[in-house]
Specification:
The complex is a heterodimer of chains A (about 375) and B (about 110). Chain A contains nine helices and 18 strands. By secondary structure, chain A is an alpha/beta fold. Among the domains of chain A are: about 170 residues, FAD/NAD(P)-binding domain (3-Layer(bba) Sandwich), CATH 3.50.50.60; about 80 residues, D-Amino Acid Oxidase, subunit A, domain 2 (D-Amino Acid Oxidase, Chain A, domain 2, 2-Layer Sandwich), CATH 3.30.9. In chain A, the strands form four sheets. In chain A, strands 1, 2, 8, 9, 10, 11, 17 and 18 form an eight-stranded mixed β-sheet that branches. Chain A has a four-stranded mixed β-sheet with strand order 5-6-4-13. Chain A has a four-stranded antiparallel β-sheet with strand order 14-15-12-16, with helices on one face. Chain B is built from five helices and three strands. Chain B has a two-stranded antiparallel ribbon. The chains are: A alpha/beta (about 375), B mainly alpha (about 110). At the A-B interface, strand 4, helix 4, helix 6, helix 8 and strand 16 of A face helix 2, strand 3, helix 4 and helix 5 of B. Chain B: This is (2Fe-2S)-binding protein.
């Protein structure tokens, strides 16, 4: 393919090079039929996608149609890895512990719900949980368990999405904030720090910053910013086998701990109160962690659509404008990249996205 | 510094790896860190911060004073988990299981 010189005119501009934007750029580039620009106000991994435990998590995602979407995406990971390289995807199996016997009944309801879409969940007794994961607290009352869950190295994942996209001819412009978007006729005109770019189609994949991008197009993006804080321990001997709802051990031995949620806008500081609560969760779940040393804390701003579910598809009443914004972008990125490619290429998708349309919020 | 000189002892990252990250577009310590793990080990960039800043300065031709330092976060030096659990109360930490069995139609806090 003859590569056009950078003339600032593209078929598609993807704004945001986090896990979702870079996955869309990569999947769209596979056919090598589009001139694509991937643009980001910072550098890949500087935002949400670089500050996550990166679970690929399925089994407790409800309602079941959302669980099903997560399952389809998790199932794409082994093949994705064949295409873009080793992203350290591990299907460890996932344990969501509970500490109150009364919750066993709720666990069985989850099993029934998720069985409708083929998500296989086991309800473990206390003894069964401790047999699987002996380091968990003996106070555990039980857990739900699924083989579908796992985790991935988010740094490798995004880096390899971007590298693969570049190999397919995608152009990247990083440290380059989009200042304004205008549409005239069929063409979007993006004013950025590093000049003007034009495209027939534009995809907003800015995660929590999609709110700002939306307003450039006059669209009220119905999302919240939610801060999550995470603790990192020193490297420890491998002792946690599974991805536990709240805790996982990385290949290098570090244990990542956290499942906090605060609505504090774009404030990314680590705060002692939440770090202490997270440390308490760590030792409540895995008592031996009391003796582990904490090396680092980090914090990221997640995006949370107002109803909790992904926003994927066309922006209503604006031909050529698309959005892909969601919590759980790590889990969903292989599928979302695939579906957005179908949508932009064929105008329709193999999974009906009506439920995920931005249009569902209108009039709310 | 030789290409193979180790700049980050904790993660064993050499000059060549830092320069490769910059060839891939990274311009700051933290962006290099996320690509290479340089500075992510037990010392939390206390050893490698300035060598890496010098490499960035040389590569970009900018004065050293213009090269930002890494983002420092607590606890700055190793702290036992049990030292943090004392006196922690309150509820910003959610339960994965708990969320799944609440009414799944809404997810508001």
């Amino acid at each position: 393919m003859v590569k056009r010189m950078m003339n600032n005119v593209f078929d598609v501009i993807v704004i945001g090079s986090g896990v979702i934007g870079s996955s869309i750029a990569y999947h769209l580039s596979e056919s090598k039929n589009h001139e694509i620009l991937l643009i980001d106000k910072d550098f890949p991994l500087s935002g949400t996608s670089g500050s996550t435990q990166a679970w690929v998590w399925v089994h407790s995602k409800v309602p079941s149609w959302y669980g099903e979407l997560s399952m389809f995406s998790a199932e794409l990971y082994p093949f994705l890895e064949k295409k873009i390289g080793d992203v350290e995807y591990k299907r460890t199996g996932g344990i969501a512990p509970f500490f109150n016997k009364a919750e066993r009944e709720k666990a069985w309801r989850l099993v029934e719900q998720q069985a409708e879409v083929g998500i296989d969940i086991e309800v473990l007794t206390r003894d069964e949980v401790l047999e699987k994961e002996p380091s968990l607290s003996s106070h555990v009352a039980g857990a739900t368990f699924s083989k579908l869950d796992g985790n991935v190295n988010p740094f490798r994942l995004v880096e390899l999405y971007v590298k693969a996209a570049k190999r397919n001819g995608v152009q990247c412009s990083f440290y380059n904030q989009v200042i304004d978007i205008e549409k005239s006729g069929d063409i979007f005109r993006l004013e950025t720090y590093k000049g003007v770019f034009r495209a027939k189609k534009v995809i907003l994949a800015g995660g929590p910053w999609s709110k700002d991008l939306g307003s450039m197009l006059g669209v009220e993006m119905p999302v919240k910013q939610v801060r999550g804080q995470i603790l990192v321990t020193e490297p420890l001997q491998p002792f946690l086998k599974y991805t536990i709802g709240g805790i996982r051990q990385a290949d290098n031995g570090e244990v990542l701990i956290g499942y906090s949620k605060e609505e504090v806008g774009y404030d990314r500081r680590s705060t002692l109160d939440v770090i202490q609560q997270t440390a308490k969760m760590a030792t409540d779940f895995v008592p031996a962690l009391a003796k582990a040393n904490v090396v680092r804390t980090f914090s990221g701003i997640r995006v949370m659509p107002k109803d909790g579910f992904p926003i994927i598809g066309e922006i209503p009443n604006m031909d050529g404008a698309y959005v892909a914004v969601m919590h759980s972008g790590i889990t969903l990125s292989p599928l979302v990249g695939t579906l957005m490619t179908e949508l932009l290429t064929d105008g329709e998708t193999s999974i009906d996205l009506t439920r995920y349309s931005l249009a569902r919020f209108e009039g709310v | 510094m030789d290409k193979s000189t180790i700049v980050c002892r904790c993660e064993e990252i050499n000059v060549d790896e830092i320069e490769t990250a910059m060839k891939n577009g990274a311009e700051t310590f933290d962006d290099i860190k996320r690509l290479t793990r340089c500075g992510m080990g037990p010392c939390q960039s206390k050893t490698c911060l300035n060598p890496v800043r010098e490499i960035i300065a040389e590569y970009t031709g900018k004065p050293l004073a213009d090269i930002r330092i890494s983002r420092m976060r607590m606890p700055l030096k190793l702290v036992r988990m049990s030292a943090l659990t004392n006196g922690s109360e309150g509820g910003n930490v959610a339960s994965v299981f708990g969320e799944s069995v609440e009414d799944g139609e809404t997810n508001d806090e």
